[in-house]
Specification:
The chain is built from six helices and twelve strands. It has about 220 residues and is α+β, with helices and mostly antiparallel strands. It has a single domain, classed as Immunoglobulin-like (Sandwich). The strands form three sheets. A five-stranded mixed sheet has the order 4-3-6-10-8. A five-stranded mixed sheet has the order 5-12-11-7-9. Strands 1-2 form a two-stranded antiparallel ribbon. The protein is globular and about 50 Å long. It starts with a helix and ends in a 10-residue tail after the last strand.
Length: about 220
């Protein structure tokens, strides 16, 4: 009983008292100081959290360092998954299939919410232009093995670290994680970027970088 009384009289936890369920027609406003530079995920935390994330309630938060990074062409890529139930109604609406999500069997794995988006609409960049990718993995279940075919990363910043890894070709971004990838492309060409878990790339986690004005085929792998 004494222990229960002690718990009851403790000051409220500021973090836990801030994150509460927001009911329909209600709103919540809060602010914070972003003390750590990097690429981070934010998401809905209402139970069941996995269902809310799988339905798209997430985003990327990019925090710049006090001392700016080297100048580069920047892109934000959020990898996520969709688990679809059967089509229903005259509009063929598909809802989340909870069992498929528990079985880790997504129908689509995407960058920025659309399968093969940047395969059909390549990102145009310059030859030898410094490039920076902020890659956030919303999940909820699949690791992103981020890789640019035909390139080596000059620097990889893991979460909020300001000490980069160098000379990396592929690096895993865990569910809920965020990494920063710096690279450049030394020749004209079409350079795919993928999650190197190729079942996921086949399901849509693939895009293209168009460097210069190439006339040949995609970069060799």
């Amino acid at each position: 009983m004494r222990r229960e009384a002690q718990v009851a009289t403790r000051p409220p936890n500021r973090v836990n008292s801030t994150y509460v369920n927001v009911m329909p027609n209600d709103s919540l406003h809060f602010r914070f100081v972003a003390r750590t530079a990097g690429a981070f995920m934010y998401h809905c935390g209402t139970a069941p959290v996995a269902a809310h994330i799988a339905n798209g309630m997430y985003g990327a938060l990019i925090v710049d360092p006090v001392r700016p990074r080297l100048t580069a062409r920047e892109f934000v890529l959020v990898q996520s998954e969709f688990y679809l139930g059967p089509r229903q109604g005259t509009d063929s609406v598909q809802s989340l299939d909870w069992q498929r999500m528990l079985d880790l069997a997504p129908d689509y794995v995407t960058f920025n919410g659309a399968a093969n988006l940047y395969a059909t609409h390549p990102l145009e960049v310059g030859v030898n232009q410094p490039l920076r990718f902020y890659v956030v993995n919303a999940g909820p279940n699949r690791v992103s093995a981020f890789h640019v075919v035909g390139a080596i990363f000059d620097r990889v910043y893991v979460d909020g670290s300001d000490t980069p890894l160098r000379g990396v070709q592929t690096f895993e971004v865990p569910m809920g994680g965020g990494m920063i990838f710096d690279t450049h492309l030394v020749e004209e060409g079409i350079y795919p970027f993928v999650s190197h878990a190729f079942a996921d790339a086949t399901k849509g986690a693939v895009g293209m970088l168009k460097a210069g004005n190439p006339s040949g085929a995609a970069a060799a792998h």
